[in-house]
Amino acid sequence: MSVNKEEIVKAVDAAKKTAKKRKFNQSVELVLALQDIDIKKPENRINEIIELPKPPSQEVKVAVFATGDLAVRARNAGANEVYGKETLNDLVNDKKKARNLVQGIDFFIAETSLMPLVGRVLGSILGPRGGMPTPIPPTAPIDALIDRRRRTVQLRVRSQLSAQCKVGSEDMNSEDIADNIQTILTRLERRLEKGLRNIKEAYVKTTMGPPTKIAL
Question: For the whole model, what pTM was predicted?
Answer without folding.
Answer: 0.82
